[in-house]
Amino acid sequence: MKKHLFLVCLLLFPATVFAHTRGGEALGFVSGLHHPVSGWDHVLAMVAVGLWGAQLGPPAVWLLPVTFPMVMAFGGMLGLMGVQLPGIEACIALSAIALGLMVLREAKPNLWAAAFLVGFFAIFHGHAHGTELPPGANGLLYSIGFVVATGTLHAVGISIGTIHRWPKGRVALRVAGAVVMAGGGFFLWRALA
Amino acid sequence: MRRLLWLLALLVVIPLPAHAHLMNTGLGPFYDGLAHPFVSPEDLLPVIALACLAGLRGPRFGRAVLFALPAAWLASAVAGPMLPLPFATAFMTIALGAMVAADKPLPLWLVVGGAVVLGLLHGSGNGVELARQKSVFLGAGGIAVALFVVVSMLAGQVTSVRAAWARIVVRVAGSWIAAMGLFMLGWSVKR
Predict the structure, then answer these.
(1) Residue contact A139–B168, C-beta within 8 A
(2) Per mean pLDDT, which range of A8-12, A16-20, A43-47, A148-152 is the poorest?
(3) Which residue of A139, A175, B54, B119 is most buried, as measured by CB atoms within 10 A?
(4) CA angle B93-B96-B101, nearest 5°?
(5) In angstroms, what CA-CA distances link B127 with B23, B140, B184?
(6) Across the interface, which of B175, B185, B189 has its CB nearest the CB of A69?
(7) DSSP secondary-structure letter at A164?
(8) A106-129 tens-digit pLDDT
(9) Measured between CB atoms, which of B42, B171, B176 is closest to A147?
């Protein structure tokens, strides 16, 4: 009986905790991963880039999704450096309108013009979202999660865009472009109201 | 243009306090070093980009980088801490990621030179922490072994890529790493 009591006392004996966690690693990555999908204006534009790329075919199908994250990161870097940009929210909404319009019209401009259009708007997305680091989170891991999530949204757009090979799929894609445009219009109205 | 280049060069060599902490596995300094690259994205990202770049360029590049990178890293960590240059590591990540995304032919000396510079820069950053822990040789040895494994696995895998789409996947990964490098540069400035 005394032996059992001793064991119970031993279990209840408080010891110093050594379970140190490294500062905000998991929080940073998960926050970064979650951030792009938490705002519909961003999601619409990202998916539209993939849809448009799928309509344009190779090499735009992978060149546009490569351009966007790189230029977006440049915009994020400008934000981190304290460079201010005017009308960010309105430009993000405009990006959805412009990219939706491209998908709706099945526009096929020069490859560099398409990359420029996508890259121009990417700066505003990066500036707005790339710098919103939750307190205590690891900045680099937040950025990694952010880039991975953005790239994945492009991949979702490209995957949906594979329906482009069928006549009805083409029509559906153009309707999707109209939906993206309408969403962009709503966010523009909200940004300017 | 020349002024801008001077400004960039100056930014690269500005030293900042080191933040290259080695993790404590509880298994000793060798294993601490072995685990270090896998829990330090600022070290791992440019290594992944370099391994992909070497793999895209072919087996000859892969073999050269496989030995050049760990050797330079080990030598720099053991030689003693130099001034840590976080801007330079961010620039290296951007440059290596962009080269993978571009997938253009490059001379062997440039890729091997990139591996040596990367090893010297990051090795010196790790050397600061290793010197503090008084376990330079074992810790640096562990890091070098981990790098050897990472480069051999990645470069070997990428070298064997034949399908066009798979090569594009590697290039997209390079562009993501360049994007992460841009953010790394931003965080270095904001720090």
Answers:
(1) no
(2) A16-20
(3) B54
(4) 120
(5) 14, 8, 21
(6) B175
(7) G
(8) 888 888 999 999 999 999 888 887
(9) B176
**Chain A hits for B45, Cβ within 8 Å:** 144
Distance from CA of A23 to the nearest CA of B (A): 12
Helices (H), A39-166: 40-56, 60-80, 88-105, 111-129, 139-161
**How far out from the chain centre does Cα A180 lie?**
15
In this prediction, residues A153-180 reach a mean pLDDT of 90
* Probe site for chain B from A29, A71, A147 (most B CB atoms < 10 A): A147
- Ordered by start, the domain boundaries in chain A are 40-192
User: A185 — phi, psi (to 5°)?
Assistant: -60, -40
- Which one-letter amino acid corresponds to residue A62? W
Residues of A near B (Cβ–Cβ under 8 Å) read: 22, 25, 62, 65-66, 69-70, 72-74, 76-81, 130-131, 139-141, 143-144, 146-148, 151
Angle between helices A40-56 and A88-105 (to 10 degrees): 30
CA distance A124 to A50: 18
The pair of three-digit structure tokens given for residue B49, joined into one six-digit string: 């980009």
The ipTM value here is 0.76
